[in-house]
């Protein structure tokens, strides 16, 4: 308040030099105070805290979290090779669509390797065990 008898409300929002709301927040003057309405991605009394959806590490399997600007609580996970899903929670089964011929068995590669290998029966070779070595 200001004035000789402190009866005039100060409009804190009118101060363009020391505008109370940060990060493009909108100031609303109240009697004896003010409040801020924050823009997307910010919160706090003065909109001083950035909302970071990646702070909780939602992505799995060592994926990278990417904060999507201009959307509330929006993020994407950039999966490491061999993983898929919104959170990179699913290991890709490369053998699902692979045929290993002549009784060969498909095995997904482990560790940092991505892909599959056909384990051929004796007498067969090739990426899919398609070569009969007995002929």
Automatic annotation (TrEMBL):
Disulfide bonding pattern of the chain: 38-47, 79-88, 120-129
Keyword Repeat set for record: yes
GO cellular component, one term: membrane
Xref: SMART domains: EGF, EGF_CA
Cited InterPro entries: EGF, EGF-like_Ca-bd_dom, EGF-type_Asp/Asn_hydroxyl_site, EGF_Ca-bd_CS, NOTCH1_EGF-like, Notch_Cell-Fate_Det
UniProt GO molecular function: calcium ion binding
Domain of life from the UniProt record: Eukaryota
Residue stretches making up the EGF-like domain: 9-48, 50-89, 91-130
Record keywords: Disulfide bond, EGF-like domain, Repeat
One Pfam family of this chain: EGF_CA
Name by which UniProt lists this protein: Protocadherin Fat 4
């Amino acid at each position: 308040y200001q004035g000789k008898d402190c009866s005039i409300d100060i409009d804190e929002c009118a101060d363009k030099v020391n505008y109370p709301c940060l990060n493009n927040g909108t100031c609303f003057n109240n009697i004896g105070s003010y409040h801020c309405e924050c823009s997307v991605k910010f919160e706090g009394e003065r909109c001083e805290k950035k909302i970071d959806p990646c702070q909780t590490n939602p992505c799995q399997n060592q994926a990278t979290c990417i904060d999507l600007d201009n959307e509330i609580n929006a993020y994407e996970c950039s999966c490491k090779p061999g993983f898929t899903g919104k959170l990179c929670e699913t290991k890709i089964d490369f053998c699902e669509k692979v045929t290993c011929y002549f009784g060969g068995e498909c095995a997904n590669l482990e560790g940092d390797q991505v892909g599959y290998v056909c384990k051929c029966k004796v007498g067969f070779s090739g990426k899919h065990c398609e070569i009969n070595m007995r002929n």
